[in-house]
Design goal:
Helix content: 55-70%
Distance between the termini: 48 Å
CATH superfamily: AhpD-like
Structural class: mainly alpha
Radius of gyration: 17 Å
CATH architecture: Up-down Bundle
CATH topology: AhpD-like
CATH class: Mainly Alpha
Number of domains: 1
Number of helices: 9
Low-confidence stretches: 1-14
Mean pLDDT: 91
Order of helices and strands: HHHHHHHHH
Length: 179
């Protein structure tokens, strides 16, 4: 197995806010005040992020969760999130063939495995959610995933869909501020 182990900024799990950091919002930005006017939403979004990307969480290993996030970001064409999750992956030992397959848009070329099934399922939910049907769930089960991990994966992809749209909207609004 080839590893990717170079140091880089990992998934933010301490104080601060991942979305603010990704979009580049600071308290001096008018948009920061707008976003933070609903503290409960900001807090819940950050709490979800920390929950999904806590390396000590049980169930899906952090490498798989980050690969799913990176893949979803690439498929959604979110440059900022793609870079964020790619940087976070650099803090973990990850099979280089998985990195190459995701980067090249060839997850179907990965050998049959749990990760391959997860990435294919992620693609379905991101690109054409109607394809995330019973047959798609059975493919995850056939790949050896237990029901709690399947639920976690579906919840993770739902969170990523929200995060991708939130970052896109805030980035667009921030770009308008500079006009």
């Amino acid at each position: 197995m080839n590893d990717i182990t170079s140091p880089a900024a990992g998934a933010q799990t301490g104080p601060g806010d991942a979305v603010d950091a990704i979009v580049g919002l600071t308290p001096a930005d008018p948009l920061y005040g707008v976003r933070h006017a609903r503290h409960k939403v900001v807090h819940a979004t950050q709490g979800s992020y920390e929950l999904f990307f806590d390396p000590s969480s049980q169930g899906l290993p952090i490498q798989e969760r980050l690969l799913v996030a990176w893949h979803a970001s690439i498929l959604s064409r979110s440059v900022a999130l793609t870079q964020h999750y790619r940087d976070a992956l650099a803090d973990h030992v990850v099979d280089a063939s998985a990195i190459a397959a995701i980067e090249g848009g060839r997850v179907d070329d990965l050998p049959p495995s749990r990760l391959r099934a997860m990435l294919i399922f992620t693609g379905k939910l991101i690109l054409k959610p109607v394809d995330g049907d019973k047959a798609a769930l059975e493919q995850l089960r056939d790949a050896g995933m237990a029901t709690p991990d399947i639920v976690t994966l579906a919840q993770l992809v739902a969170f990523l869909s929200y995060q991708i749209r939130l970052v896109a909207g805030l980035s667009a609004m921030k770009a308008l501020e500079s006009l």
